[in-house]
C-alpha cells in the first residue's frame, strides 16, 4: 500500500500512476474524507489545547517565583525559535519518513517535555543572590524553562506542519479543510486556556503540567494505533502494475492515458467505459514491434500519431533534463519568489497581532480583579469568536469576494482590534479581544491555499507536487512562528519600557505597513491591476485584480 504519511517513500512512477488512473479510480484514491478530516481535526484540537494551557499558567508561576519580565520574554522566545529551527527540516522528512510517523514522534516528545517541566521549580532555594537580587535558582529555572520551551517548539513543529501539509494534500478543496483545521485549532485554544487556569487554580503548577503530559501521550497512542489508517491511500490494479514498470515505459503510459482522457472528454456518454490503460499500451507496443520492419518514419507519423507524440516528448525530456535537475524545489527557491514571501510576511504580522499579548495580557487583567479563572476566560474569548467564524467562512461564495480582497480587508481591520486592547477601559479591551478573533480569520483560512497554488505553479511537475506541498506548509508554519518571535519581543520588552498603549500602537503600525507590502506584492508579482469601465455605470471606474 502507498501511504501519504506512513510507510516508505513510493517509487518515482507512483506520481505518474496517479495521473494514469481513471476518474472513478481517482475518487477512491484518498481515504474517506469525513473520517480523515475528523481525525486530523481531533489531533489539532487536542495538541493545541495542551499547548495553550501554558499561556495562563507559566507567566503567573514565574511571577510567583520573582522571575522578571525580561527573563519571561526569553522563556517565551525559546518556543518559537525551536519551531523556526525545526519547521524547514521536518517538512523535508515527511515524504521519505512519513507524515504520521513524524507527528506521532512529536506528540511523544511533547508529552515527555511537559512531564519534565513539571519538576523545574523543585530546585531547592538555598543558594545566594547576585547583586541585582536574582538568585542562582532563578537563573537555573530560566535556563531549564528556556531549554524546555525550545524543545517543545521543535516537537510541536512536527505536528503543526504535519497537519497543515495533510490538510492541503489529502483534500481537493483546501479552503474547506483549512476552515475545519483552524476551527479545531481555535477550539483547542479555548479549552486549553480555560482548562489550564482551572488546573492551575485547583492543583497547582506541577499537576497541571503532568495532567497535560498524560493527555498528549494518550493522543500519541490513539493516533498511532487507531487513526493512522485514515491517512493511507488505496492502490488500484493499474497503479500496482505501474510501480513494477521502468520509468520510461511508465511515462509512455502517462502520455497515452492523457490522450485517452482527451478523447474521453469528447466521446463521453452514459455507456462509455474507459479501457484498461496498461492493456491498451501493451497492445500498441506489440503492434509496433510487428510492424517495425515495414514502417518508416514518415509512415509512422501519418499512421500512428500517438507514437510520434511519444517520440517528441522523449526528445524534449532529454533536452531539458539538466534544467529539471536544477529546478528542484527547496525552501529557499520558494522564498526567492516575491509573491510567496509577501504572503508569508502577512501571516507573520497577523500572528504577531495576538502573540504580543500572551506575555502581558494575564498580568494586565489582574488589575481588574478577575481572578485566575476570569483571566482564563478572557484568553479563551478571542477563540470563542474565532471558531464559528473560521468554520463559516468556507461558505462565503468565492465569486462574490475575491480571496485577495478578503485577505487585504482582513489585514486592514486587524490593527483596530490591536488598538482597542491598549485602552484603559475593560469594555474596550474585551471588545478588542473579540475583534482579534473575528477579522483576522480570512488570512488564517485562505493564505496557505493561496501560497500552495502559487508554489505549484512554479513547480508544475506532478512528481514534485508532494515535496512542494510539504515545503510550503513548512514556510507557512515558519512565518507564523516568526510572528510569535516578534510578538514575544515587542510584548514584554516594549511594554516594560514604554507601556501598553505604545506597544499596541507599534504593532498596529507594523500591520498597516504589511498591508502595503501585501498589496504591492500581489499587484506587481502575482498579477496586475488594471482600470476597467463598468458597463452599466458610465464614467465610473474600478480596479480589478488579474
From TrEMBL:
Name of this chain's protein: Major facilitator superfamily (MFS) profile domain-containing protein
Superkingdom field: Eukaryota
Membrane topology: Multi-pass membrane protein
Key word Membrane present: yes
Localization (cell): Membrane
Keywords on record: Membrane, Transmembrane, Transmembrane helix, Transport
Regions crossing the membrane: 36-58, 70-90, 102-121, 141-164, 176-195, 207-227, 340-362, 374-393, 405-422, 428-447, 468-490, 510-531
Pfam families xref list: MFS_1
InterPro entries: MFS, MFS_trans_sf, MFS_Vesicular_Transporter
Gene Ontology CC terms, in alphabetical order: membrane
SUPFAM superfamilies given in the database record: MFS general substrate transporter
Amino acid at each position: 500500500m502507498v501511504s501519504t504519511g506512513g510507510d516508505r517513500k513510493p517509487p518515482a512512477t507512483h506520481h505518474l500512476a496517479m495521473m494514469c488512473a481513471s476518474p472513478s479510480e481517482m475518487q477512491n484514491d484518498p481515504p474517506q474524507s469525513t473520517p480523515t478530516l475528523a481525525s486530523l481535526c481531533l489531533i489539532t484540537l487536542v495538541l493545541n489545547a495542551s499547548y495553550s494551557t501554558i499561556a495562563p499558567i507559566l507567566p503567573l508561576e514565574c511571577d510567583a517565583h520573582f522571575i522578571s519580565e525580561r527573563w519571561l520574554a526569553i522563556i517565551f522566545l525559546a518556543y518559537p525559535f525551536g519551531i523556526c529551527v525545526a519547521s524547514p527540516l521536518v517538512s523535508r522528512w515527511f515524504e521519505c519518513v512519513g507524515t504520521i510517523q513524524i507527528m506521532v514522534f512529536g506528540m511523544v516528545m511533547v508529552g515527555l517535555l511537559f512531564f519534565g517541566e513539571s519538576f523545574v521549580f523543585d530546585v531547592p532555594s538555598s543558594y545566594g543572590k547576585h547583586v541585582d537580587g536574582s538568585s542562582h535558582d532563578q537563573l537555573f529555572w530560566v535556563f531549564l524553562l528556556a531549554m524546555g520551551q525550545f524543545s517543545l517548539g521543535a516537537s510541536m513543529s512536527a505536528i503543526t506542519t504535519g497537519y497543515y501539509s495533510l490538510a492541503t494534500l489529502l483534500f481537493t478543496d483546501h479552503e474547506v479543510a483549512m476552515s475545519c483545521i483552524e476551527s479545531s485549532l481555535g477550539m483547542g485554544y479555548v479549552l486549553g486556556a480555560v482548562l489550564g487556569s482551572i488546573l492551575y487554580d485547583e492543583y497547582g503548577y506541577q499537576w497541571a503540567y503532568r495532567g497535560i503530559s498524560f493527555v498528549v501521550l494518550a493522543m500519541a497512542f490513539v493516533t498511532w494505533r487507531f487513526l493512522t489508517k485514515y491517512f493511507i491511500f488505496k492502490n488500484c490494479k493499474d497503479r500496482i502494475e505501474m510501480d513494477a514498470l521502468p520509468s520510461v515505459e511508465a511515462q509512455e503510459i502517462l502520455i497515452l492515458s492523457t490522450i485517452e482522457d482527451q478523447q474521453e472528454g469528447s466521446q463521453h456518454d452514459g455507456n462509455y467505459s474507459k479501457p484498461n490503460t496498461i492493456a491498451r499500451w501493451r497492445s500498441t507496443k506489440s503492434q509496433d514491434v510487428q510492424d517495425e520492419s515495414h514502417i518508416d518514419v514518415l509512415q509512422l507519423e501519418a499512421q500512428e500519431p500517438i507514437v510520434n507524440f511519444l517520440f517528441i516528448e522523449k526528445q524534449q525530456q532529454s533536452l531539458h533534463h539538466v534544467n529539471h535537475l536544477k529546478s528542484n524545489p527547496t525552501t529557499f527557491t520558494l522564498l526567492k519568489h516575491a509573491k510567496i514571501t509577501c504572503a508569508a510576511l502577512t501571516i507573520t504580522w497577523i500572528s504577531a497581532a495576538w502573540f504580543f499579548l500572551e506575555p502581558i495580557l494575564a498580568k494586565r487583567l489582574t488589575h481588574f480583579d478577575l481572578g485566575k479563572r476570569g483571566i482564563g476566560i478572557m484568553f479563551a474569548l478571542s477563540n470563542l469568536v474565532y471558531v464559528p467564524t473560521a468554520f463559516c467562512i468556507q461558505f462565503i461564495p468565492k465569486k462574490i469576494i475575491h480571496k485577495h480582497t478578503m485577505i487585504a480587508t482582513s489585514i486592514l481591520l486587524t490593527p483596530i482590534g490591536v488598538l482597542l486592547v491598549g485602552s484603559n477601559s475593560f469594555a474596550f479591551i474585551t471588545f478588542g479581544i473579540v475583534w482579534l478573533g473575528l477579522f483576522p480569520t480570512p488570512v488564517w483560512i485562505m493564505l496557505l491555499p493561496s501560497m500552495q497554488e502559487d508554489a505549484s505553479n512554479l513547480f508544475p511537475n506532478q512528481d514534485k507536487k508532494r515535496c512542494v506541498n510539504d515545503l510550503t506548509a513548512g514556510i507557512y508554519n515558519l512565518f507564523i512562528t516568526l510572528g510569535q518571535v516578534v510578538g514575544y519581543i515587542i510584548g514584554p520588552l516594549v511594554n516594560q519600557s514604554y507601556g501598553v498603549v505604545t506597544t499596541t500602537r507599534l504593532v498596529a503600525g507594523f500591520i498597516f505597513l504589511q498591508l502595503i507590502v501585501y498589496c504591492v506584492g500581489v499587484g506587481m508579482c502575482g498579477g496586475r491591476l488594471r482600470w476597467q469601465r463598468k458597463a452599466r455605470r458610465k464614467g465610473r471606474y474600478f480596479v480589478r485584480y488579474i
